[in-house]
Amino acid sequence: MRLAVLLKTVPDLVEELALDEDARTLLFDEMSYVPSEWDDQALEEALIIKEESGAEVTVIAVDTGDVDTMLFTALAKGADYAVKIVGDFDAAMSNWQKARVVADYLGRGDFDAVLSGVQAIDDVDGQLPGLVAGFLGWPHASVITEVRVAGGSHLQLRQEYAGGLVAELETVTPIVVGVQAARKPPRYASVAKVRQVAKSATIDEVEADVAEARLAGVEYVRPVAAGHAEMIEGDIDEVVDRIVAILEERNLLRRA
Amino acid sequence: MGPILIVLENGAAGVTEATKECVNKAKSLAAQLGTTTVAVGFGKQHVSDLRRLAVTKVVIASGGTMDLYNPDAYEKVLAEIFGNVKPYLTLIANTTMGLDLGAGLAGRTQTPLIAYGIDIEEQDGRLTAISQVFAGKLLARVPIPEDGAIVTVIPGSWPADNEAGDPEIEEWTAQDSEAMRVLRVVEPEQSDIDITKADILVSVGRGIEGPDNLPLAEDLAEALGGVVSCSRPVVDAGWLPKARQVGKSGQTVKPKLYLACGISGAPEHLQGMRDADLIIAINTDESASIMDIAHFGTTADMLELMPALAERLKGG
Fold first, then answer.
1. Helix (H, G, I), strand (E, B) or coil at B44
2. Domain range for residue B158?
3. Set of chain A residues whose Cβ sits within 8 Å of the Cβ of B306
4. CATH number at residue B300
5. A142 and B99: CB-CB below 8 Å?
6. pLDDT tens digit sequence for A11-40
7. Chain B residue numbers touching A170 (CB-CB < 8 A)
8. Distance CA A131, CA A111 (A)
9. Which of B126, B143, B173 is the last residue of a domain?
10. What structural domains does chain A harbor?
11. Closest Cβ–Cβ partner in B296, B308, B312 for A246
């Protein structure tokens, strides 16, 4: 079984988002980027499948900036091949555009299943796995928490719904899967191991033309919160005093 | 201008509130734009409710595997109906089904998609979707293109429409999916603790750092007479069972006290707890989204505050 895992980077929310508040634009070049956490879950699930059934895992990223470290990290974790789709791309590239070039690449290959994070924090124009599946006309399921090879060319998926309800699906391949969470927490690759892999492994580069974005004039603004919490200041004892007083006022303390 | 299409969820529990919210917004936008509303429902469950929706027309896709949600079968029949209705705007609630069908339909029909919508504004006949992105830290204002768009909408964005109507009904025959079948649907695991019935929840997020710190939360919950719940990352890490999860893919809770410890407040989490009577948030980041809906907040270190509060409550 040949698995493709789509990886992308997103702005690091630990830092302040670089917003030009007057022009209402995001300053994509002024932000630092980290791998999207849901993609990390998708990679982990693919690596679990590889361990269980000997699948071959190819990680794929669109070159919107520095994606090499992310790809080498995936190789260090156990992925077999890394592909970088290169072209006239930048960090402002939309998901629609990424999905278009990824779908074109996947359509030329013979992958059995494509796994990617179910969503990402910058999905304003849609989630990558669904768009890719739609472009390819392949079946697709999102919010998946388990993917198992069920013999032959079938996969079994666990799909989650609100309230903890779960469906077990059986599907033929090829299929695109939006992974919510892997069966185990994502594994860790040490910096030393990633460095070592970066020296010995190669990333295959595939050229592509940029596709047209479908949304224009997108503006970004900070939300005006309807309210904000009344902040409790002071040291730990003072905060404890205040919380106890608030609970007492509302009759929420247990009677001794 | 084409109609406004609403994709309904009408499973075992009936037409969901989230899709009735989309019906409400579709009706007001249609009135402003001078167009009609078309709703698509699936299968025979609660079909009488579909026939009473206050929209212009209801298309009911039945046959095949429509009685049980099948992502592939639903997407294919929806794409057929979409091609027939030729809507200007399509509204889908951002649930698991919405995540499947929104992007899938967009890709299949080459229709632009705007995800995580929380509102749609009309001005001079032009629509702008407001979308919540970057974990709620920013709003995107997205002009809806002249050739239309699909918008997936975060549940709770508008009031639900409960008006009764007499829509035109169109039956649509769906095909079985050749690619996918539902093997079984599993009810949520039974837990000894039902967080939806607790008056007091001590809810932990990533800030708990690891399972070794969970006893601090358990201890505080016990001192308060409550139970421990959590946000999604804690379940994904395997530190607490799924039954303790609050949020979109977990439980919706409305306790008297929700003590949010180390929870940033992603939209999916807020969806499950925003109606709590009293929300106190402990988070080192004062600008975290949880602070926008909390009544009280503190930037104290939760790992210090939880044991100190527990000790005081126990009379220490």
1. coil
2. 4-173
3. none
4. 3.40.50.1220
5. yes
6. 999 899 999 999 999 999 999 999 999 999
7. 180-181, 183
8. 17
9. B173
10. 2-207 (3.40.50.620)
11. B296
